[in-house]
Amino acid sequence: MLTKIPKGMKDVLPTESARWRALENEMRKAARLAGYREIRTPVLEHTELFARSAGESSDVVRKEMYTFIDKGGRSVTLKPESTAGTVRAFLESSLYAQALPMKMYYINAPHFRYEAPQSGRLREHHQFGMECFGATKPSADAELIVLVVNLLQSIGLKNLSVRINSIGCPNCRPAYQKSFKEYLNQKRDMLCKACQERIDINPMRTLDCKEESCKEQLKDAPVMLDHLCEECKAHFELLQTYLQQAGIQYIVDPRIVRGLDYYTKTVFEVVTNTANGELTVCGGGRYDGLVEELGGSSIPAVGFGMGIERVLMLLDDLDKDGLTVEDEAPEIFVACLNQELAPQAFLLMEKFRVAGLRADMDHQGRSLKAQFKYADKLGAKHMAVLGDDEIAKGVVKLRDMQTREEWEAELGQAAQSLKERICR
Questions:
Q1: CA–CA distance from 394 to each of 135, 397, 412 (Å)?
Q2: Is the pLDDT of residue 138 over 90?
Q3: Is the separation of the CB atoms in 413 and 392 below 8 Å?
Q4: Strand ordering across the sheet containing 44-46
Q5: Which candidate, 224, 239, 351, 422, has a CA 20 to 30 Å from the CA of 181?
Q6: Using CA atoms, how far apart are residues 117 and 105, in angstroms rounded to an integer?
Q7: What is the pTM of this model?
């Protein structure tokens, strides 16, 4: 068991991590272009933070959180999502006192949910997310949707579909919730057990049920869009205007409610078609009441989360994606004729590194022939070979591993000689 990873977890091996970094680089670039700055929050938070933010009716709080009592007797939870922690940091560090809107993003943030591992999302998964505090206008909502679509398209994802909805606000939602609850009670016995529980806790969550029988029963259910107050209606209409101006094609989907209770007004998902059906790549929306719910003043906010594993999985299905993966192979491998010269080889390797070149050498005492084989397995672009004659003359023999061309350079000028060769 010591050498077997827990269910729902995954190692990111050296052969994979370069693609992770390439994707993260594209995400960082998109965030910076939009004026977002990085925030990093702890992986562990007080359990109450998620109970108050996500809502006790959410599956996350009821079924999926990794919660335990620490040695001080406090209930703590491995974060299942990052919005709550970002709001907590926003309040605790008084970021609300700075110029608003405050735009922040997080990347490669580990999240933990105890659920059956699914396509592109494990029990430990990582997210890229963006959160904007203090923006009241739907232009902030549109900005994030446009950014997501442009980012995903730029890295090669196709068949993307934007789904948007408005789930109202505390002014217009209660009346809808009441009438919808009456509708649901008439069908209670025909709904799944989870939906029967949701009727009394958060009726709108039944619209998000994945059970086909529930979908059939609720196909004619009243929708929030028909009950929006004038403010919410104007917000949603203007959001659509912004998306149209940006050339974003979208579908108004009244069944999108998202899985967390803090959402208000705009909710959205970006979906793609796969061989196994539709898959949500990104989801988010507006949460205008969450800052106040967690003890702050009334500050509106909007954001999204995107699973990194899921995006990489989708990219793996493409013949060619748009990621530029860094070359990690050594630009130069320093070999020596015998082990007495290993200290000089080590010094030369360090000089190459100081000059900004990826350099490596043998650390197992291999023969010169075996060193060449090892360098070839590493994909080394060039070799630097030190022998007694080269040391005596104060030079090193350099070889291009592709063309097999060889030349000599003074030991003190070897790095510069190689850099000039690479830049030719």
A1: 66, 10, 8
A2: yes
A3: no
A4: 44-46, 75-78, 66-69
A5: 239
A6: 26
A7: 0.91
